Amino acid sequence: MGSLCNTYFENENVSLKDYYSENIYTWCTNCGNYGIAAATKRALVAENIVPKDTFMCFDIGCNGNGSDKIGGYRLHGLHGRVIPVATGAALANRKMTVIASGGDGATLSEGIGHLVHAIRSNYNITFLMHNNCNYGLTTGQASASTRPGIPMNSSPDGTTADTMNFMNFVLSLGASFAARTFSGNVDQMTEVIRAGIRHIGFSVVEILQNCPTYNKDTTHEWYQNRVYDTIELNDFDNTNLDSALNISKDMSERIATGILYVNPNSVPFDQRLENRKGYTTELVDEVKSYNNVSQELFSRFV
Ligand code: SF4
Ligand code: MG
Predict the structure, then answer these.
(1) Where are the domains of the chain?
(2) Given strand 227-229, what is the order of strands in its sheet?
(3) Is 16-275 in CATH node 3.90.79.20?
(4) Is the pLDDT score of 281 beyond 70?
(5) What number does the ligand 1 atom closest to the CA of 65 have?
(6) Prediction pTM value
(7) Ligand 2: centre distance to CA 217 (Å)
(8) Rounded mean pLDDT of 99-113?
(9) Within 13 Å, how many C-alpha atoms sit on residue 34's CB side?
(10) What letter does residue 135 receive in the DSSP assignment?
(11) Bridge partners of residue 57, in order along the sequence
């Protein structure tokens, strides 16, 4: 294995070109999605995961326009429903690395119930929440994470509903892995996504993403002037949930990024199931064996 930096591009079994797609990016110039796509590919290469062992699910939104820009198995689903699809895949075949992507519009509205139950069930997937604080794909409506009073296309006089702090919400539910990163810092994003992939349980990665076309408030520069990495703090313990809750609160002056919380005793959903204990086969193998039985039965009657 090469140096840390080189493993982003080439590893023992896989290189960045294995995740190459010939489809042309359609995101706006300077969109944060470019950095997120690069960090996701780098993380998979650095973790030495080949495309055939990867399943990436995308919600509807600008994030979803990345669904055909990366190699591997992919699914582009319904608005707000990416978590259940990804969860089903992960439960059917635990050998796959499953990554789900969704935006703030879908996740904090239609998808919020799925998020809550995925956290409490601790399904073993990595969820990348592209938080650009608006509905970008549908041209700049306010979402639940748009900052207070900001004029958006759906609310030209400024938003009136209170703003949700996504990370604080996730931590209040006791997520077993919670990280926050910034689309302008590809190296940090890569490392955080890698840690999310390695974590056994539901890994939530909030990506503070700029949307230069529709969000003129939380711009790249706005974040750049406020984010800091908790790794620089001497006294921050990311296994302490109360500390993580506390440090996640500030979303206007100093914004904490990095791995904010990891539960060292995380037990994922599939290891909690009494009736699966002792099974060495995957659900996908069992379905195949049922298929064989039914084909045999079918052949007796034709
Ligand atoms: Fe990116 Fe915003 Fe353009 Fe969507 S609308 S591609 S989030 S800049
Ligand atoms: Mg959005």
Answers:
(1) 16-275
(2) 73-76, 54-58, 97-103, 126-131, 203-208, 177-182, 255-262, 227-229
(3) no
(4) yes
(5) 6
(6) 0.94
(7) 13
(8) 98
(9) 12
(10) B
(11) 75, 100
